[in-house]
């Protein structure tokens, strides 16, 4: 951490601070002040887990009583000012004192803001356990595995965390955290989610109630712009997946089903709006093909034919999923091993 991240001690800062209710230990050996909130904690514990805190404490201890005299100490305990938010510091200390239990006790309703704070501060203070433990919950959701992704889409599985009411800003922060920590395997699913917001919103950023606007980097905005067009093109692959369908071998009512298949092909050709940025949307997705999955030509198909058609669609979906890295212009190896194993190059004329 740069020394500039520490504020110079102000003479009366310690006096005007508000004491944190959870982290004010009578035997604490250091007072950390963030956004005017003081945390009286144990230097030894913070030093044990964070080389950054260790370095900070090494600097301030010998000077205690000189540069840090008066407002620089509180009841004889040295004070250090940090530029982090009070909420962030509160979360970090919880994770340091309570270990994994802090997050696991909140599953499946871990507030996104808690995960974001732990990832950001875990990274800043070089406490990789805290950072990795929090990131794991995002990695679980912004998965590299399509079957897992489908479970979340169809609500067969719920995430371990909850986005805030400012989901747009949360999504952009997710991307920025993945970039910050180098956990790039999450980026295809994250950028896909960002694209669903539309280019206008991506360019505008996500405004928080605090007034802060969360934005993607210029580089990631460009990836989204390129990816957006490609996703629209890929979504067109659903047409051949549906119109190329034929009756299943196990069909129970071939004559009726083949007539309905024919109607389905006619409807599919005529269906405007089949192109969507949600290229991975399922057949049952309300805003996509739902309009004809309620028609007789769909519902009247025998089980075997309907399953066959869904299967054909799933194959197309899987092809699109495997193309996500190249949709967003990533090179092989940029996103880690799992994506690299099934990397496909984007060919403008073939996709
Ligand atoms: Zn059939």
TrEMBL record:
The BTB domain, residue ranges: 26-105
Gene3D superfamilies: Potassium Channel Kv1.1, Chain A (3.30.710.10)
Domain of life according to the entry: Eukaryota
Protein name as annotated: BTB domain-containing protein
């Amino acid at each position: 951490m740069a020394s500039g991240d520490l504020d110079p001690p102000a003479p009366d800062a310690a006096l005007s601070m508000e004491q944190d209710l959870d982290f004010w230990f009578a035997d604490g050996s250091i007072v950390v002040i963030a956004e005017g909130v003081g945390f009286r904690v144990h230097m030894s514990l913070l030093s044990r887990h964070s080389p950054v805190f260790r370095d900070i404490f090494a600097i301030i201890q010998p000077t205690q009583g000189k540069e840090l005299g008066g407002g620089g100490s509180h009841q004889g305990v040295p004070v250090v000012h940090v530029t982090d938010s009070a909420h962030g510091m509160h979360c970090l200390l919880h994770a340091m004192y309570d270990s994994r239990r802090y997050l696991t006790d909140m599953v499946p309703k871990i507030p996104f803001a808690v995960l974001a704070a732990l990832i950001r501060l875990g990274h800043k203070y070089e406490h990789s356990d805290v950072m990795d433990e929090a990131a794991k919950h995002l990695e679980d959701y912004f998965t590299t595995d399509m079957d897992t992704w489908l479970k979340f889409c169809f609500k067969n599985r719920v995430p371990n965390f909850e986005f805030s009411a400012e989901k747009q800003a949360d999504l952009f922060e997710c991307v920025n955290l993945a970039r910050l920590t180098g956990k790039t395997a999450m980026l295809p699913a994250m950028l896909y989610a960002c694209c669903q917001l539309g280019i206008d919103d991506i360019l505008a950023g996500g405004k928080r109630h605090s007034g802060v606007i969360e934005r993607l980097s210029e580089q990631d905005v460009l990836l989204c712009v390129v990816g957006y067009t490609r996703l629209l093109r890929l979504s067109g692959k659903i047409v051949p997946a549906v119109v190329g369908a034929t009756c299943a071998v196990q069909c129970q009512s071939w004559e009726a089903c083949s007539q309905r298949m024919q109607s389905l092909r006619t409807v599919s050709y005529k269906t405007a709006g089949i192109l969507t940025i949600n290229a991975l949307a399922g057949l049952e997705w309300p805003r996509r093909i739902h309009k004809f999955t309620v028609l007789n030509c769909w519902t009247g198909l025998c089980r075997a034919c309907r399953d066959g058609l869904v299967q054909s669609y799933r194959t197309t979906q899987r092809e699109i999923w495997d193309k996500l890295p190249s949709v967003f212009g990533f090179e092989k190896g940029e996103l880690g091993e799992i994506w690299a194993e099934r990397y496909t190059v984007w060919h403008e004329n073939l996709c």
